[in-house]
Amino acid sequence: xxxxxxxxRSRALRTLWMTxxxxxxxxxxxxxxxxxxxxxxxxxxxxxxxxxxxIEDDGFVLCESMAINFYLAKKHNSPLYPSxxxxxxxxxxxxxxxxxxxxxxxxxxxxxxSALPEAExxxxxxxxxxxxxxxxxxxxxxxxxxxxxxxxxDFSLADLNVAGALYRGLSMDLSRWPAVREWLARCWDRxxxxxxxxxxxx
Length: 202
Fold this sequence. Notes:
- The protein is α+β, with helices and mostly antiparallel strands and 202 residues long.
- The protein folds into 2 domains: 2-78, Glutaredoxin (3-Layer(aba) Sandwich); 85-191, Up-down Bundle (Glutathione S-transferase Yfyf (Class Pi), Chain A, domain 2).
- It is 55% helix and 8% strand.
- It contains 8 helices and 4 strands.
- It has helices spanning 12-22, 41-46, 65-75, 85-115, 123-144, 157-165, 178-188, 191-201; strands at residues 2-5, 26-29, 54-57, 60-63.
- Strands 2-1-3-4 form a 4-stranded mixed β-sheet, covered by helices on one side.
- Helix 1 (12-22) runs parallel beside helix 3 (65-75), helix 1 packs antiparallel against helix 6 (157-165) and helix 1 (12-22) runs antiparallel to helix 8 (191-201).
């Protein structure tokens, strides 16, 4: 059986969302990032980076949430995995793009504007992060003005991966990027997404 190591309050959120889309059974090791459980010899044997999520799937071990989602969708023949090579490439493109252009930047911005205790916030970190978030969201907004989904005519792995990573965007003022705001709402309105969000916020 699939075993997922990682809390819904981590990047495992997007892996849990994928699992719910697929409707497959799983066991859940609810590990928070940087928690003592990620430093044990047993966990480090699975992922020497001491990061979540990690999956074990009948003896196969894989880390990195984007790669995990590609693997799960393809293994289970999900329609979320684009069958057309060009759309598959777009799904890869947007997943890589998000990890490079928005993932850490958005975390840093939110941490240093609202998530961390006020005494631990650093305005310079928030400002530097925002300076990268703005042009990235401009790019995403421009694309979503032209197309409803990121890799084809329907919701796909590309949308799940990017929208899953943009969970924090649900609590941001995205009025400057209306196409992003509407797309993000469509993605997170899916039943599987609502279930994953309830786990994170519960």
